Amino acid sequence: MGNTACCQTEAIxxxxxxxxxxxxxxxxxxxxxxAGGDTEQERLYEVTLVxxxxxxxxxxxxxxxxxxxxxxxxxxxxxxxxxxxxxxxxKMHSGxxxxxxxxxxxxxxxxxxxxxxxxxxxxKLCRCLTYEYLLEDLEKLIRHKxxxxxxxxxxxxxxxxxxxxxxxxxxxxxxxDSAEHKMDANAGLPQIALSxxxxxxxxxxxxxxxxxxxxxxxxxxxxKTMGGPTITTRYGxxxxxxxxxxxxxxxxxxxxxxxxxxxxxxxxxxxxFEDKEIVALCGxxxxxxxxxxxxxxxxxxxxxxxxxxxxxxxDLLHKQWQEETNSKGKKQFRCGSAMMLPSDMALLKDPSLKxxxxxxxxxxxxxxxxxxxxxxxxxxxxxxxxxxxx
Length: 390
Ligand code: HEM
Hints:
Blueprint: E1 8-11, H1 40-43, E2 44-50, E3 59-63, E4 70-75, H2 78-86, E5 97-101, E6 104-105, H3 108-117, E7 120-126, H4 131-145, H5 148-160, H6 179-182, H7 189-204, H8 211-225, H9 261-268, H10 275-282, E8 289-290, E9 299-300, H11 311-318, E10 322-325, E11 331-335, E12 338-340, H12 342-349, H13 351-362, H14 364-380
This protein binds protoporphyrin IX containing FE.
């Protein structure tokens, strides 16, 4: 999982940091409780550290200029350890983040300067606010609510409005008056997917991550949690702040399920995808299902809708699909309890597309690799100045 490149570990006193900086994970909490607590009240705490002459602060932090917060790597003694001894209820832990020092917030360079220069430090901190905790919280949510598929779809539709010119992933869908929020293709996504992500967004956005980065990280965790490849996408997507930043129009951006291979190409080619990548991306229908009340289609593609494997391609090739008209009057294909959309069947009709269905059905590792490459391109298309670490 991403974020492996190293940030700059700063011992605020200039002393050497210890080697192991893994946070203490909240493995005891039940269900999908967030690490550090569900409410702001549980997570936020205040600390006052007073440095007397020559005393060392005793905090190693994970400094990176692009961040808004300073994650604590270690409490290494000094004034910080003294505080921890005297204030067991407000103990500073590795993995907590410094949000504010003496009124300075949102600028880590200035926060760091304050820590070094001032002798009295009034700090606001948040528990368990690092990238590792974010991954933990997402994985817990996905396992607890079985919501991996809709999180993948949320992220694909955020990135999928890119048409080669505009519409890069910017989480505009969360803004009620945006085009993305109202698009038929996104029915159910803002209401359901965003409610699921709500508590995690409240904890991490914007302190650690943007909404748009959160959505893609959530999808990456979902893919991995459901048995798929480990995919690392870069960070730095900028959130839309108003509906004026939403896609200029809905037309021609997201694929329609009742259409054929010509339509698929007309949608995916402007985004920069060729036949192999179109087929690879469609394999994501190995997970999740269609909902009558959202898209008007009904049913799951594969027997295990929570397993990210190549069964979509195998089933597409080997099952006997019968055309049916569902209760919403839409044409789809059925075999037992499984279904395929007309757009899925289009992958079989066209020899150039079918070639890749055959290859991916035969070789799951090949599909994982091609899916991973196409997914990264999808998620980074049109984005400016992405970076390797959060
Ligand atoms: C090729 C054209 C595509 C069409 C026409 C299409 C269409 C659809 C439709 C109609 C649904 C059902 C939505 C609902 O009723 O809740 C759906 C679900 C889904 N799609 Fe696609 N899709 C396409 C490509 C993709 C791609 C490229 C991905 C990801 C890489 C993807 C991922 C998903 C997932 C994971 C779900 C399940 C969502 C859930 O269970 O809530 N789809 N898609």
